[in-house]
């Protein structure tokens, strides 16, 4: 079986949606999704970076992120013909481990615990494909990187791009 590694945030879990809601509700930030085009959160409302970071490092921040549309169904389908590993750069927020694990069990209960990889540098990942919204992870990756479209990466070129989970299904299952 060929092996597909899949990132969590902004690929399986809608990190931006929760951040926008948080910034607008708690800090009247008036942020819209369009502002994320080509930008990271830290560039959009820099004066709120410290406060937002406090929320993200809280142990439960990642527990209730919305699930990306069609990801459950497509990953379940892919898991019949591919070996699926969930590879999240969890060392950026070590306090997120438990919440991320529980989130995966709740929404992707068909995957085995042993296929969850909480890692630092993703170049250690040995897989045939990596689906990720951060192209920097492809630089030293040996397999084929697939850039999952997220507002921050829409102007990036030079990668094989998938815009949503239905396109992921088409790529792998034709
Ligand atoms: Mg990500």
What does this structure look like?
The structure is a single chain. This protein is α/β, with parallel strands linked by helices. The chain folds into 2 domains: 3-14 and 64-173, HAD superfamily/HAD-like (Rossmann fold, 3-Layer(aba) Sandwich); 15-63, no CATH class. 31% of the residues lie in helices and 16% in strands. It has helices at 15-27, 41-44, 49-57, 71-78, 97-107, 165-173; strands at 2-6, 82-88, 116-118, 129-132, 144-148, 160-162. The radius of gyration is 16 Å and the shape is globular. The model has no long low-confidence stretch (mean pLDDT 95). The site of magnesium ion has 7 residues, from loops. Magnesium ion (MG) binds next to loops.
Distinct ligands, ions and cofactors found in the model: magnesium ion
Total of domains: 2
Alpha plus pi helix count:
6
Low-confidence stretches: none
Shape: globular
How are the strands of the largest sheet arranged? 3-2-1-4-5-6
CATH topology of the largest domain: Rossmann fold
Short description:
With 174 residues, the protein is α/β, with parallel strands linked by helices.
